[in-house]
Amino acid sequence: MGEDIDEKNLEYANKNVALNGFQSRIKIIPSMPGNPLIPLDNLRLESIDFTMCNPPFYESTEEMLSCAKEKKRPPFSACTGASVEMVTAGGEVAFVGRMIKESLTLRERVGWYTTMLGKFSSVSTIVGRLRDVGVQNWAVAEFVQGTKTRRWVVGWSWGDMHPRMDVARGVTTLPKHLLPFPSEFTFHVSSTPPGGVGKRLDIALGGLPLHWQWRPAQATGVGFAKENVWSRASRRKGQASLIEMDGEDNGEPVLGFKVQVESGGEAGGSEVRVRWMKGGDAVLFESFCGMLKRKAMVHDDS
């Protein structure tokens, strides 16, 4: 579904849908300036996977003209957007602020909220606001069009499914405290080839009370844990308190992960990459990665 408040934009959008034969798949909906930006209730939708937004960047026509003058862009790259597409009260920060406010109510009814930003300064402001309202799962990325034009993207989710790290941390010029927690951990095992490391990890994880599936041909495994079952404290609890994997369902996993073992290349040995797929506890993920590294680097005495 697509929304717009401008009649001409709605007309062109409907034409594009028809020209591409997508009438059964895309619906264009007229809206009003004061309406909700994400009107799930008005559309009688319980949930959607994601939103995309290209907000008006500027808070006034004067600001738009001033920015255009400072950039000294050649005519072929001049902006041709209508005023309603380029200018809004408070600029893009205020517009996306409305999205953040609505997401506080909608929460996980939207899988991921995403928006483009036209100013680099807005990225830190928006990420700061997300952190202020308690968002722990966000992503930032940069688009480079040609050699000069740059745009930025911020996405956030109230769920605990994490994107790949190259997606979530796609702006290297941001201060580290504005980037989301790294969702991948990589380490090198110098003395053992991938097959040996994979077997070692499969045995270690297969011996823990968690869901684990290892595919030797792909040297890849995926697992889910409902609690920390690898720590010393967990082992001291004894078998009576371990998760019953084949019995009653004890709730959602608190950690989902993917493990991939590759050749170490010129350095020899193996490269192990652990990806954080699901969960809201970064300390738990770090603990798991530490355990996995220790298991992978244990020397084979045989």
Structure write-up:
With about 300 residues, the protein is α/β, with parallel strands linked by helices. About 30% of the residues lie in helices and about 25% in strands. It has helices at about 5-20, 60-70, 85, 90-105, 120-130, 165-170, 195-205, 230-235, 280-295, and strands at about 1-5, 30, 50, 110-115, 135-145, 150-155, 170, 185-190, 210-215, 220-225, 255-265, 270-280. Helix 4 packs parallel to helix 5 (about 120-130).
Walk me through the topology:
Blueprint: E1 2-4, H1 7-19, E2 28-30, E3 48-51, H2 61-71, H3 83-86, H4 91-106, E4 110-117, H5 120-132, E5 137-145, E6 149-157, H6 165-168, E7 169-170, E8 184-189, H7 194-206, E9 211-215, E10 220-225, H8 232-237, E11 255-263, E12 270-278, H9 282-296
Parallel strand pairs: 1-2, 3-4, 5-7
Antiparallel strand pairs: 4-6, 5-6, 8-12, 9-10, 10-11, 11-12
Helix pairs in contact: 4-5
Taken as a percent bin, the fraction of beta residues is 15-25%
Q: How many strands, what sense, and barrel or not for the largest sheet?
A: 5 strands, mixed
Give the beta-strand count.
Answer: 12
Counting helices, strands and paired strands, the structural category is alpha/beta
Shape: elongated
In short:
This protein is α/β, with parallel strands linked by helices. The protein has helices at residues 7-19, 61-71, 83-86, 91-106, 120-132, 165-168, 194-206, 232-237, 282-296, and strands spanning 2-4, 28-30, 48-51, 110-117, 137-145, 149-157, 169-170, 184-189, 211-215, 220-225, 255-263, 270-278. The model is unreliable at 240-248 (pLDDT under 50).
